[in-house]
Amino acid sequence: MATRSLLTVPLLLTVAAAAVAWFVLGPAAALAFVALALLEIAMAADSSVPMAGIAGRLHSPARRLFLSLGIVAGVLAMRLLLPPAAVAVGDATDPASSVGEAVFAPGSFSAHLAEVRPALAAFGAAFIWLVFAEYLFNTDRASRRSWLGRLEARLARVARPRVWSLVTAGTGVVLTTVLVGVDAGWAPGRLLPVVLGGLAGIGAYLLSKRVAAWALGGLTSSDTASVGTEGAWRIHAYASTVVFERGLVVFMLFEILDGVYSLSGSGALGGDGLGALEQAAVAVAAIGVGAVFLARLTSRLDEAAGLKRLRYLKAGAAYVLGILAVLLWTSLLVPIPGVVVGWFGSVVIGLALATSLPWRAWWKRARRGLTGRTRIARG
Length: 379
Known about the structure:
Layout: H1 2-24, H2 27-55, H3 62-91, H4 95-104, H5 106-136, H6 150-155, H7 161-184, H8 188-217, H9 229-257, H10 276-303, H11 306-309, H12 313-331, H13 338-356, H14 359-378
């Protein structure tokens, strides 16, 4: 029943949009949209657990804003607008021209995106590693049970956890730069994007946390029930940092590692007969459906306190980010197989879920039941 209620709105949107696409653009557009929408829904299921972990760090009403509009807006903006923005900055061109190229000349845009990809991957790796390091070094000093044993427990108790976070991120940037330099013969054209991207990722993380600290510092407990103009601005500022954080993670996973830009990627799923604008419309609508499902599923997890009852899910969500950061750094040296990109998150979350279930309690109950039935049979 819960699954059906979660899927009702996304599936209704899918059916309605597919019908409109069929009558306006033809069967090819409808089929391409359905395929993309189902793929986005499947990806949203993987992303919901990390997103619920982030939502749990927000305070009302910032959490309500994040779970309703923030997720949808953040996913759409990061998936669709960040690549043209990155290309525009890298090539020093007009952002509108970059968006036009993405829609009408996807081949040329992909080539330009590939040129700035090393800087983007280095940026995302450093930023996402620092987000993961919040869990690894337990910067909030929260009480928790370690998922991976003594080593994780020791790392969670280190002194000055924020310093350790920055040191490990800096080490990742330096190590990747050295390896890229060795591989490229220390060519400045290969080294400079990696260095600048990594430093920019660290700087963006620090700026995001600074904004979040400023926003939280001006909110009191009474602000959560009733906020004035300043309190509302602070809530929006805080929520925007979280939207950016998760939107960047989704963008790096599904755009940079797999190398397919969503705005021009529907041809791979049966939309080859469509024009540029039709493909763009299909992709935007499909991503919107996936974002709505992601918001609903994240909200349900948050309401049910799923991350508290399944104690290792939050750890699994954190390690997905850590592995993603390592994969982004690795992708600067060697291509990452598509099967790894598509399944590593599901595997980690699945292991976290499996280890969270009370197998020992279930086994004890089963043994007591068997023992009781045996005694009755003997009697």
